[in-house]
Amino acid sequence: LCPCLIYGAYIFLPFDAPLLPTVSARLVYTLRCAAFATFPIVLGMIVSGISRLCSSALEPFGELHREVEIHRTYVSQSVHLFILYFFNMAVLATYLPQELLKLIPLLTGFFAISRLIFWMSYAIGRSFRAFGFSMTFLPLLAMLLWNLYGMFVLEPENLLS
């Protein structure tokens, strides 16, 4: 499902990436796009804080209720996945040709939407969260494999430069 959604968005959404001839310009573009991927994390922090304030626990550092634990776990996992996402995107932006740089904002939007789907499905029940997690993790795994392929097969002479 992930490749079909990204391919459909790549073909049918009417925008192109700006001309980015240097590696530093591509990294700045990736950084700007990655700022949008933090939206679900910030939203999760806000909801986690509100749910912690509204919980009926008498001890603030005691046992957490299920509602509070769901949001805290979501934020923690999202931060870890965002770090992996950002470093993979930064490496990916250096290898992609100019005509494929449109994938950077598409993958960013897909990451944010998939984290929100994971959060919703995790709140419904733990057995439903596999769909949202796979929508986050499998594109991340594909980016990692492409980056390793690019580093070791396509350009091994530029590996450490």
Automatic annotation (TrEMBL):
Q: Domain of life here?
A: Eukaryota
Query: Gene Ontology terms, cellular component aspect?
Result: lysosomal membrane; trans-Golgi network membrane
Task: Output one GO BP term.
Answer: regulated exocytosis
Transmembrane spans: 29-53, 74-97, 103-124, 131-152
Q: Please tell me whether the keyword Ribosomal protein is annotated for this protein.
A: no
Q: Which UniProt keywords apply?
A: Membrane, Transmembrane, Transmembrane helix
PANTHER family with a match to the protein in the record: TRANSMEMBRANE PROTEIN 79
Can you name this protein? Answer: TMM79 protein
Q: Which organism is it from?
A: Anthoscopus minutus (Southern penduline-tit)
Gene that encodes it: Tmem79
